[in-house]
Amino acid sequence: MARSLKSEAEFFLHQGLQLSQAGAYEEASISFERALQLYPSWHETCYFKGIALYELQRYTDAAACFQQALDLKPNYPEALNSHGMALFSLGSYEAAIASYDKAIKLRPDFHQAWYNRGNALDKSNCHEAALNNFDQALKLEPEYSRSWYNRAIILYKQGKYEAAIASYDKAIEFRPHYSNAWYNRANILNRLKRYAEALQSYDRVLTIKSDWYAAYYNHGNVLHKLKRHEEAVASYDNALQIKPTLYEAWYNRGNALDALGQYDDAIASYREALALKPNLREGWYNWGSTLHKAGRYEAAIASYDRAIALDAKFARAWHSRGVAFRKLGRYAEAITSYDKAVQHNPNLYESWYGRGVTLGHLGRNEAAVSSYDRALAINPSFYPAWYSRGVALSHIGDYETAITSYDRALEIRPNFPPALRRRNLALDPNSLSMLAPDLDSDDDFNEPVLAEDMIEESLNS
Questions:
Q1: Positive or negative CA dihedral for 390, 392, 394, 397?
Q2: pTM for the full model?
Q3: By Cβ atoms counted within 10 A, which residue in 213, 364, 388, 446 is the most buried?
Q4: How far is CA 212 from CA 29, 74, 367, 386, in A?
């Protein structure tokens, strides 16, 4: 009878192992349980059942099974390691480390336990200790790509980017199709502004895993930075085909289309981004900037207002709003906007400059000179402010100081015909009445600047 029970238990044990091998973990756990009902003292069956439950992400039940195995056989390093893994998955990092410690004490060459201990230390924010554990795992098993991979993540957290890349390279050496390693490597290269190398790594990721939307998204970001805007749009399109709700891709796609001068398409892209994330202030601002470039100033102001409603201290939006009002000849409103811009960002020299230009339009030349002085105190090499300062001083009748301002503009930009012409005329003030008025000479310097692209996807852990 005993032999019959044992044979039946062995049948269920072997059945469970076969089912586990086939990935049928739910059925496997049932077979292991039936074996244990017949022979509760089989520590290995408890262990195998725990593995099946772990694969099913039933970590509490798995931990209980591993503990049952350890109650039957305390000196069981494999069960101690797996028990630690279940505890780790439950967020009990200190208990997991204690379990790994016992496993390592029994088997000092147990590289998986060293590796898992490193992961638990990382989660406990003990990064240097985690790094030492990964190094120990690699001494025991130099070709264990996961140790190289997680080691790279720690190095990245420590700001050791070159060392992190080298560690990802080792992970890839032993596992050439390790898509996560290629992806994280690309992200670091992107951060280091080594865009050509980053692009190659993203390309490799997408060769391995062609449905990874984040890789297409970051691939697009790099192409955009390289000013390969049409290719960037194609990459964003690929990302959005996989994940249509990725508002960051819609937003950055809009930026790339804006760079191509395809303003209607850019606006359509910003509209999609804002439908998904209505409180994206940069989206409203860039929509306004694109409308602005298309000469649609009233509509641009409405978009800037939406951005400002989300962030009243958004200095760049106040600045661009001021430019749009000036373009419409609504100078008082333009000055109010510039005042708000410099209130929230006193170092925004473009706003001090634009404010000066607007004051000049109103004939308030002394106030304009003061505004130009503020701009030049922040950025002494901003030659348009030196030029416009000279114009305002000429209107006041201070030709000598005006000539000095024109000279400064020409020192910075020798090939600047308006400054040279104005300087020569200031030498003969009587001829100034023959000079046609300036035609918005500041246009090139008051075009709205797009807000930054959305940040890249973070590293995969």
A1: negative
A2: 0.85
A3: 388
A4: 33, 44, 56, 51
